[in-house]
Amino acid sequence: MRTGEISAIVTTVRRGQRYTEANRALAARTAQQLGIPNVPRGSDSLEELRAAYGVDAVLVARRGLLTAVTSEGELFFHPGMAHLRIKNLLLGHGDHLVSALGLTEGMHVLDGTLGTGADAIVESFAVGERGTVTALEANPLIAAVIADGLAHATGDNYEMHAAMRRISVHHADALSFLRDAKDRSVDVVYFDPMFRRPLHESAGMNALRTLADMRALTEETIAEACRVARRRVVMKERQGSKEFERLGFTRITGGKYSRIAYGVMEL
């Protein structure tokens, strides 16, 4: 069954492998939300299920959370370095993304590329309870896995836990969402498009790349972002990327020795 450009089914772990009613309910709820088959697990392996149904991915409800299993690896919610970045912010050490976005308490952020959700967590912490983070994800499977994790996984500390819960995730194409948004309706818009060459290899990142929208940002998307944002539009890319110049980012910031940089448009 296809959802967008990705074919998928949803199932649970085998009975006896921490099979719980909560996992069964999560699988059923996910199948209904995404409009994909909810398949009884039986004794089949996930690879056998993927082959039998001719799908690209199998969503598995395990330990109360979703995992997307692809031929390239497994994608599941993990906050990555977000907990360390929040600890650094609590200690007053700062964060390059927070600085690039110019985030302060109470601001409203539109994150056009949710991905693993780590940046959105840091954004949510930085803007606090009075602020908002709306995160968009073009792929419905990534959106389902990460939104479920943000809503139900446990944070390393209260600040991180609360920041995760405040993020509003939407399965949406960024350009389409921006076209429908009102002028100056958020403070900042942020993009982290998938790098053409990964900075590092891992099963999780390989699975993300398999599912992710690999299209480059367009000039129209940036123009719409500039209309919708009140203060800044920011894009993350590799240091020295020609995408900054192509899309009109002339101010580049970030860590001196970092392999990534942020292009900033002041509005």
Task: Please give a quick description of this structure.
The protein has 267 residues and is α/β, with parallel strands linked by helices. It is built from eleven helices and twelve strands. This is Class I SAM-dependent methyltransferase.
Kindly state the number of beta strands.
Answer: 12
Q: Numbering strands along the chain, what is their spatial order in the largest sheet?
A: 8-7-6-9-10-12-11
Q: Could you tell me how far the N terminus lies from the C terminus, measured between alpha carbons in angstroms?
A: 43 Å
Question: Strand-and-helix sequence, N→C?
Answer: EEHHEEEHHEHEHHEHEHHEHEE
Overall residue-averaged pLDDT value: 90
**Gyration radius, rounded:** 19 Å
Unreliable parts: 1-5
Structural class: alpha/beta
| Largest sheet, strands/sense/barrel | 7 strands, mixed
How helical, in percent, are the residues? 25-40%
GO molecular function: methyltransferase activity
Keywords: Methyltransferase, Transferase
Pfam families: SAM_MT
Protein name: Class I SAM-dependent methyltransferase
Question: Could you describe the 3D structure shown?
Answer:
The structure is a single chain. The chain has 267 residues and is an alpha/beta fold. 37% of the residues lie in helices and 25% in strands. It has 11 helices and 12 strands. It has helices at residues 21-34, 46-53, 82-90, 96-101, 118-127, 140-152, 158-166, 174-180, 203-211, 219-228, 243-247, and strands spanning 2-3, 6-12, 57-62, 65-70, 73-76, 108-111, 132-137, 167-171, 186-191, 229-238, 251-253, 260-266. Helix 3 runs parallel beside helix 5 (118-127). The longest helix is centred in the first third of the chain and has 14 residues, at 21-34. Mean pLDDT is 90; it is low at 1-5.
